[in-house]
Write a structure and sequence with these properties.
Layout: H1 2-16, H2 18-23, E1 38-39, H3 40-55, E2 62-64, H4 65-94, E3 101-103, H5 104-118, E4 125-126, H6 128-139
Antiparallel strand pairs: 1-4, 2-3
Helix pairs in contact: 1-4, 3-5
């Protein structure tokens, strides 16, 4: 039972995205210094650290397809083909150079893109409204 709950929470974390999980009270808090503002550096670090912590089993700062495969299997189990497809899409989006590994640099670049597209007022800070908008776009299948 506990294992099932943990797997479900992890699946939600990956499928929904770290920011969405945090906004719902689970997952990493991107406001690392607790000042009420999320900078690009904080966002990049929180996203990168969360993914590496969850999947980089040998702690070499990269995620192999084998390390990520259990998430795809779990998504398929809980969300069917659509869930597995979403996880496969996440892999494809993160493995930018298509070498079969997701590196720290690839995760950071992806986080920087998401930050830039979410910073609606271009002030270099994600406020609560921008984080909420990011969460909502992810839950509807956005990036």
């Amino acid at each position: 039972m506990i294992r099932s709950i943990l797997f479900s929470a992890l699946a939600l974390f990956v499928i929904s995205g770290p920011v969405q999980a945090q906004m719902m009270g689970r997952g990493p808090d991107p406001d690392l210094n607790r000042d009420g503002k999320v900078t690009q550096a904080e966002f990049r670090k929180s996203q990168t650290d969360a993914l590496l912590e969850a999947f980089d089993k040998n702690r070499d700062s990269q995620i192999t397809k084998a390390e990520f495969k259990p998430m795809e299997d779990m998504a398929r189990r809980f969300r069917g083909a659509a869930g597995a497809g979403r996880v496969a899409d996440i892999w494809t989006r993160l493995d930018a150079n298509r070498d079969g590994m997701i590196t720290r640099g690839e995760i950071e670049t992806s986080a920087e893109r998401r930050f830039a597209s979410s910073d609606a007022d271009r002030d270099g800070i994600l406020d609560r409204a921008e984080l909420t908008s990011l969460r909502q776009s992810r839950s509807s299948g956005g990036s």
